[in-house]
């Protein structure tokens, strides 16, 4: 026991000793390791100007001479105080430490081994690009932790790239291109989080044994690996650099194919260079997914047969390297932004069969050297570019070509006759160029051709009968050229023709009658803007395939083709500006696909059928300037897509449908120059899209709907020449978009001008003339700066005319025939109240003080005598007036709405028509001047009729109806007629009083000497001016020659301010002018007597127009002899 216990204690003592010894050894080892590390780790050098300067000077001294003189003198310790001003040296913001060294292009020779990077701890940029530095890149450069920019490119550095560069965590730019570096690119560089630019090009780098160590760099946008010795497959780490915009892997020996994920992962790529990179296979169609790509280089791909780079954003010139792809059969670069001419190297593409370069900005000519080598071409598409010059005759060598598209370029000259050699041609489109001359006769030998588009050129000549040879022709379009002559009958042989377009040329003659019937496939016909005549072929839509028929602006006549009635395929019809006649009522049936129809400016009659309401897709309905009659059918309101509705210048009657207010897409609405009546529907205020509303020259009555103020998009509103009454709605001032015009003239509107109209800041024309408006013209109207034309004439306006704006240049004609309206306008100057003379002295005051009382006494005495005399006369007059008032049943009166006085007032004002108030006498009666108690002055004409009771009751009533109508006439050259009275067997006409003598002098001054016969007055009204010049020409001794008569058109003689008359109105105008001219003949015996004139007028005779109104001459109207 004792022994065991001893052994145990000894063992414990030994273990304790050993543990203490181990602890001591560990402590010693740690101390030695720390000391070792202290010696091994380089001492940290504190940056100071001297330390940095010494390191720089030491490196300079290691470089091979000669050094640049500025560098040699600048880099010196003697110049230490100016370190921050040394050549190629830049200090930081504190100006105490070196932050940049830029020696790019300095042509220095040496190495970097002599540069102590540890002495430059604050260096952020080092640029040695473009020198002759050699040797290895020292690993110590990895200790410059603040470096952000390092460019060692274009030098002679060799050996490997030090992996210590991966320690530069702040680095953003690294370029070592164009050196002699070899080995692999260190994978440690993948750890640089901020680097965006890496250029390893033009070295001898090789592929890494294991690319899996390389990871994506999220900040990288520029990566260049070109001109190295890479041999492996495409590096996968590149696909993880998803912000790349520039990738160049050209001039290597990669193997395998381009991964498809390149097109999806690198969607931001703008530059991709695959030239001579070694990758195989086809370029994927997914290349189009690189939508930001601006430049693509593919280099010498000699085995490439199919290349489609269409619909990208390539914005360079066509790379000449494409000419090295000699096996190409398909090349499409269409729909990019390519510029410049075609490279001549493309002549090497002798196997090319399909070439598409369309929709770019390629310029220059189409060289003959290229065309002559492309003899295998089946399709050549260079449309929508900027090619110029002529088409080379070598085009005739393309014997296999089927599709030739040269349209929308700047080609000029004549069409080569050699194109006629291309017998396989199916589609030829050379439209929208500047080709001139005649269409080559060889083109009519292309018997396989299906499409021939020659439109929008400067071609001339005719279309020969040989066009009938093109039996496969489906589309023929020669619109907008200078072609002329008649269409040959042989166009009826084109049995598969679908589209025939010859509009905007100089064609004449008629259309072959069998056209359409022999061409059952026709869908589109365009004859517009020519001089065609005769009738349209009757069977244009015999097979129900016609979609578009446009024959507008020709001289076609006769009825509309019956085949149109049930042509349900029609979507667009233009027959306007011709001479079509006949009844339209049944010309069109239900055409459910019709979108656009225009029949305006023809001579069509009949009524609008309710079936038009079934054309539910109609957006435009234009039938203006015809002779249509009846009512506007309410079924039009079913056309919910309608945007344009014009039925102007017809003979429509009755009310207009209020349901039209439901056409919410309507922007043009014109019903002017008809015979429509009733109120303007309030529902039209719901036409929120309306731009133009024209209801002028009708018989609309009632008030202007206030709801029109809700048509916020109106540009033009014309309600003139109607019978509208009431006030101008204040709400019209809310039409802020109103720009073209606001015309409310020639109505019966009353009340004041709404000041709210001042808000129409864009309005250019304002016309409220010929109404009964009162009050003043608001001064704020002068702020309407867009106004170019105003007319306030013929109203009851008063006060001062505004100044400023359009009012400064307006003439008196814009304000005439108002009451008391005056201002700074010639002829309307306001009267000035003269001020009393203040220059008189005391003597004048005394003299006036004596004279005035004496005069007043004398006048007072005379006044008493006059009053005594007048008392008796007044008593007699009052008795007379009372007698008249008591016998109202014996007085027959017709007063206009302006007649605010009674016949009794006239008797009082003229002292029972005393001779002292007589101002003129004639063979038909006497005229009296009557100044009423209101101050108004009128002229009363007492007619010399023995007994008005002798006038038959029927005639008398007719006469009074005519007088009632005349009281409503308002014309600037007609004296206003207030009304008519018949009393005690006498007749009285009451006119507005005019000073200055005769009517002739008032109207014409000295020209008034011309006798005012019935004919003169009528011509004055019709012409809008004095007819003296016209009558002098007609009545001169020499007379008018037949040639002059032929040249003087009636339409040029009439008042140009009025719209040209149409229909029955035109016939009435011709008839009235004919009679007026007869009444102004020089020889009185040759004039018709008034009884004959009255009989003609009362018989409502009209002149049948054998020719269009615009062609009628004055000479043809001078033969009236009744």
TrEMBL record:
Q: Which GO terms describe its molecular function?
A: ATP binding; protein serine/threonine kinase activity
Q: Give residue ranges for domain Protein kinase.
A: 913-1122
UniProt keyword annotation of Transmembrane present: yes
**Entry GO terms, CC:** plasma membrane
Q: Where in the cell is it found?
A: Cell membrane; Membrane
Catalytic reactions of this protein: L-threonyl-[protein] + ATP = O-phospho-L-threonyl-[protein] + ADP + H(+); L-seryl-[protein] + ATP = O-phospho-L-seryl-[protein] + ADP + H(+)
Q: Which SMART domains match?
A: LRR_TYP
For this UniProt record, the keywords arranged alphabetically read as follows:
ATP-binding, Glycoprotein, Kinase, Leucine-rich repeat, Membrane, Nucleotide-binding, Phosphoprotein, Receptor, Repeat, Serine/threonine-protein kinase, Signal, Transferase, Transmembrane, Transmembrane helix
In the Enzyme Commission scheme, what number(s) does this protein have? 2.7.11.1
Name of the protein this chain belongs to:
non-specific serine/threonine protein kinase
Q: Which organism encodes this protein? A: Flemingia macrophylla
């Amino acid at each position: 026991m004792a022994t065991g216990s001893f052994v145990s204690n000894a063992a414990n003592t030994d273990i304790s000793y050993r543990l203490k010894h181990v602890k001591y050894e560990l402590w010693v080892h740690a101390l030695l390791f720390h000391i070792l590390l202290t010696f091994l780790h380089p001492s940290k050098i504190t940056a100071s100007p001297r330390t940095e300067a010494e390191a720089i000077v030491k490196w300079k001294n290691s470089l091979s001479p000669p050094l640049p003189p500025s560098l040699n003198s600048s880099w010196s310790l003697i110049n230490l105080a100016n370190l921050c001003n040394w050549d190629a040296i830049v200090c930081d913001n504190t100006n105490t430490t070196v932050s940049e060294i830029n020696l790019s292009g300095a042509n220095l020779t040496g190495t970097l081994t002599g540069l102590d990077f540890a002495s430059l701890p604050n260096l952020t940029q080092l640029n040695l690009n473009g020198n002759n530095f050699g040797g290895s890149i020292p690993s110590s450069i990895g200790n410059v932790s603040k470096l952000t920019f390092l460019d060692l490119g274009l030098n002679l550095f060799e050996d490997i790239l030090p992996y210590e560069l991966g320690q530069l965590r702040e680095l953003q730019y690294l370029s070592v291109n164009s050196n002699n570096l070899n080995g692999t690119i260190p994978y440690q560089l993948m750890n640089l989080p901020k680097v965006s630019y890496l250029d390893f090009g033009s070295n001898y780098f090789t592929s890494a044994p294991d690319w899996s160590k390389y990871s994506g760099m999220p900040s990288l946008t520029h990566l260049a690996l070109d001109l190295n010795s890479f041999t492996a497959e495409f590096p996968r780490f590149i696909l993880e650099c998803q912000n790349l915009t520039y990738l160049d892997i050209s001039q290597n020996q990669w193997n395998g194919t381009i991964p498809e994920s390149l097109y999806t992962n690198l969607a931001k790529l703008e530059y991709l260079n695959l030239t001579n990179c070694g990758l195989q296979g086809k370029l994927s169609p997914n290349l189009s997914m690189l939508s930001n790509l601006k430049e693509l280089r593919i280099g010498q791909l000699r085995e490439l047969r199919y290349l489609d780079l269409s619909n990208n954003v390539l914005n360079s010139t066509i790379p000449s390297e494409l000419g090295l792809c000699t096996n190409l059969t398909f090349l499409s670069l269409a729909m990019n932004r390519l510029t410049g001419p075609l490279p001549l190297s493309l002549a090497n593409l002798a196997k090319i069969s399909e070439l598409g370069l369309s929709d770019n900005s390629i310029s220059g000519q189409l060289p003959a050297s290229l065309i002559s080598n492309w003899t295998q071409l089946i399709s050549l598409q260079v449309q929508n570019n900027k090619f110029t010059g002529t088409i080379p005759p070598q085009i005739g060598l393309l014997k296999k070509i089927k599709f030739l598209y040269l349209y929308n370029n700047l080609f000029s000259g004549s069409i080569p006759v050699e194109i006629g050699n291309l017998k396989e041609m199916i589609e030829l489109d050379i439209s929208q160029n500047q080709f001139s001359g005649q269409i080559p006769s060889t083109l009519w030998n292309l018997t396989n051709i299906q499409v021939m588009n020659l439109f929008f050129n400067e071609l001339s000549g005719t279309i020969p009968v040989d066009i009938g040879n093109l039996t496969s022709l489906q589309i023929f379009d020669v619109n907008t050229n200078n072609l002329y002559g008649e269409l040959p009958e042989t166009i009826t042989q084109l049995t598969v023709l679908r589209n025939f377009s010859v509009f905007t040329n100089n064609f004449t003659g008629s259309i072959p009658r069998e056209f359409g019937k022999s061409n059952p496939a026709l869908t589109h016909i365009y004859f517009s803007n020519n001089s065609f005549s005769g009738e349209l072929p009757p069977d244009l839509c015999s097979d129900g395939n016609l979609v578009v028929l446009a024959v507008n602006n020709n001289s076609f006549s006769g009825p509309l083709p019956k085949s149109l009635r049930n042509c349900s395929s029609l979507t667009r019809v233009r027959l306007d500006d011709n001479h079509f006649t006949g009844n339209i009522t049944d010309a069109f049936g239900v055409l459910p696909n019709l979108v656009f129809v225009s029949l305006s400016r023809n001579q069509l009659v009949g009524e609008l059928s309710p079936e038009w309401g079934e054309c539910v897709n109609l957006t435009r309905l234009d039938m203006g300037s015809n002779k249509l009659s009846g009512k506007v059918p309410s079924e039009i309101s079913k056309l919910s897509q309608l945007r344009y509705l014009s039925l102007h210048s017809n003979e429509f009657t009755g009310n207009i449908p209020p349901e039209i207010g439901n056409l919410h897409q309507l922007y043009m609405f014109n019903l002017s120059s008809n015979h429509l009546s009733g109120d303007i529907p309030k529902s039209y205020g719901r036409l929120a899209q309306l731009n133009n509303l024209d209801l002028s020259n009708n018989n609309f009555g009632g008030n202007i709907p206030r709801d029109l103020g809700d048509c916020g998009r109106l540009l033009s509103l014309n309600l003139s020449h109607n019978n509208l009454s009431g006030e101008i709605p204040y709400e019209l001032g809310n039409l802020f978009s109103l720009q073209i015009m606001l015309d409310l003239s020639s109505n019966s509107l009353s009340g004041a001008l709404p000041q709210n109209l001042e808000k129409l800041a864009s309005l250019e024309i304002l016309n409220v003339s010929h109404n009964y408006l009162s009050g003043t013209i608001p001064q704020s109207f002068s702020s309407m700066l867009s106004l170019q034309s105003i007319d306030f004439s013929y109203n009851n306006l008063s006060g001062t005319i505004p100044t400023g704006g359009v009012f400064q240049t307006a003439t008196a004609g814009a304000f005439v025939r108002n009451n008391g309206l005056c201002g700074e306008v010639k002829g309307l100057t306001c009267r000035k109240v003269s001020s009393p003379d203040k220059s008189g002295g005391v003597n004048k005051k005394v003299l006036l003080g004596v004279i005035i009382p004496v005069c007043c006494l004398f006048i007072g005495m005379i006044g008493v005598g006059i009053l005594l005399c007048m008392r008796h006369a007044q008593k007699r007059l009052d008795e007379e007036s009372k007698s008249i008032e008591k016998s109202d049943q014996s007085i027959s009166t017709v007063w206009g709405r302006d007649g605010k006085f009674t016949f009794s007032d006239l008797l009082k004002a003229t002292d029972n028509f005393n001779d002292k108030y007589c101002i003129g006498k004639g063979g038909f009666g006497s005229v009296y001047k009557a100044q009423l108690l209101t101050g108004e002055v009128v002229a009363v004409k007492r007619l010399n009729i023995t007994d008005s009771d002798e006038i038959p009751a029927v005639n008398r009533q007719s006469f009074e109806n005519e007088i009632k109508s005349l009281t409503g006439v308002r014309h600037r050259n007609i004296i206003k007629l207030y009304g008519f009275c018949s009393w005690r067997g006498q007749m009285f006409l009451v006119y507005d009083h005019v000073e200055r003598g005769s009517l002739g002098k008032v109207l014409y001054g000295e020209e008034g000497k011309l006798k005012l016969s019935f004919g003169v007055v009528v011509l004055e009204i019709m012409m809008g001016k004095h007819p003296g010049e016209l009558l002098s020409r007609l009545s001169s001794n020499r007379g008018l020659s037949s040639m002059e008569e032929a040249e003087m058109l009636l339409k040029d003689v009439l008042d140009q301010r009025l719209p040209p008359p149409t229909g029955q109105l035109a016939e009435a105008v011709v008839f009235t002018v004919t009679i007026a001219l007869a009444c102004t003949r020089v020889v009185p015996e040759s004039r018709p007597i008034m009884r004959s004139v009255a009989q003609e007028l009362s018989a409502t005779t009209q002149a049948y127009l054998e020719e269009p109104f615009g062609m009628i001459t004055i000479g043809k109207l001078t033969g009236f002899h009744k």
